[in-house]
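Comment thread on ticket #2218

A.B. wrote:
> Attaching the input chain for the structure job we discussed in standup.
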Amino acid sequence: MGRIPTSVAVVTGHGPEGPVGMTVGSLATVSLDPPLVTFFAMKESRSFAALRSLDRICINVLDEDHADVCFAFASSSGPKFAVGDWDMDRGDAPVLRTAAVAMHCGIGPVYEAGDHYGLMARLTDLRTTDTRPMVFYRGLISRLHPTTGRHAKTNRLDWWAH
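C.D. wrote:
> Ran it. Output below, let me know if you need it in another format.
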């Protein structure tokens, strides 16, 4: 599966024990109407167990300069939120101020997918930047380089918020 490039995101929430978060490389858009995304985590993940019990999360898509944040949240130990510039003042999920995309979401269904769980989330708020996203490919953090050619017509990611 390592030959399939993926985005890298840190999913965060704020639970009874304080802020919690984890790195995911399986983020996918599901629907534009309603705006839905999904991600997957190993069944034994303690961070995922904490996140799935919450009402709200924030999916922070990392930019190409966030390797330190990626590795901090991929670890099961250490002070994760000591790395990166986090806004902890919203009263719900921590937001990485410098994220390429920050998606505030309500928690949807959790479903089994082999040795993983999937979590569906519905977007309630969105912030985007013009920074380039981090890409994970063949076991490495990579940079996205635009190719020459035509632009594909796409819908605005935040069309539903206007």
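A.B. wrote:
> Thanks. Noting for the ticket: The first strand starts at residue 6 and ends at 7.
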